[in-house]
Amino acid sequence: ILKRNPHAEVVALCDLRPDLLETLGRQYAVARLTTDYREVLADPHVDALVVALPVFLHAPVSIAALNAGKHVLVEKPMAGTAADAAAMVAVARSKRRVLTINHNQRFDPVTVFLRAHLAEDMLGPVHFARCIWTRPYGVLPGPERNWFNEKDKGGGVLFDLGTHLLDRLLSLFDFPEPVQFAASSFTVLGKEQERRTGAPFDADDLTVAMIQFANGLTVQMEVGFGSHIERELCYLELYGAKAGVTTLGGLRIFSVVRDAPFVSTPLRPLPPPACPSVPDDFVAAIREEREPLITPESGLKVTRVLEGLRRAAAEGWGRPDLQNGAV
């Protein structure tokens, strides 16, 4: 995307794997290749960095880049902990640099449409939302991408696919404050892959969660790297007092007109947003000296919810004492 942007020039690529560097250098016609990102940070002619690394490296590399005076676009999730994300925000603000996160579903035409629909109160107060992104068996991240599968490196489906769902959903409601979490995380098919390949897999491959927010919204979320299901599922549902929405099988809006249930669907594809992507907005924010559409503070809020769900899954659900009549 950056190669297509007329206001950006990709001048260097950095990776620890020289063979991959050479391949990408040829593919994108980039001559400067290095295995040490500090060389790039020391170059005064470099204005900005894209940090697309394992999650546990997002904060240290981004903070080093911001301290070097570079603008930063970091891959999602913003960081592995809320403390790291908060540190990134603090440095970006103190250095007056643009920091944004690749929450690309924020630019999806359906997301843009729903945000406008909610702003016009077409659904009424929304009390419940369901978001699901789960994949069928056979598409678990393999050993060649093994950090996705290792908990201490920031891997796992909650921080991978869950990040997308949460940012998309929370952005529709101006990032309400969470008040309660409940979650269960599983590593089942991942352990089967570990036995088969010998590569470690201790991160979650399935997480189901419930979140309550201070504005009265309750969210149910399910994310899975690979389950015994027929096909990949990725959709959002909103339950409002006036109308409801689903994106399962395409965008549909359900309402009641003169006591009769109605279903509304777009007759043509929704128009693309004015700014087509996170990288394009990143470049525009730097050139125009403005806030990016995806602010670092919003990334921090998503990370706080992710961390709350991870903690809830580790602590387990409350178990009623059925023998003593507790419910």
Describe the 3D structure.
The protein has helices at residues 18-28, 37-41, 58-67, 82-95, 109-119, 157-172, 189-197, 278-288, 296-315, and strands at residues 12-14, 32-34, 48-51, 71-74, 99-101, 126-136, 178-186, 206-213, 218-227, 233-240, 243-246, 252-257, 260-264. With 327 residues, the protein is an alpha/beta fold. It folds into 2 domains: 2-102 and 277-293, NAD(P)-binding Rossmann-like Domain (Rossmann fold, 3-Layer(aba) Sandwich); 105-273, Dihydrodipicolinate Reductase, domain 2, CATH 3.30.360. The strands form 3 sheets. The chain has an 8-stranded mixed sheet with strand order 7-8-9-6-10-11-12-13. Helix 3 (58-67) links the parallel strand 3 (48-51) and strand 4 (71-74). It is globular, with a radius of gyration of 21 Å.
CATH topology of the largest domain: Dihydrodipicolinate Reductase, domain 2
- Low-confidence segments, ≥5 residues, pLDDT <50? none
* Domain module tally: 2
- Going by helix content, strand content and strand pairing, the class is alpha/beta
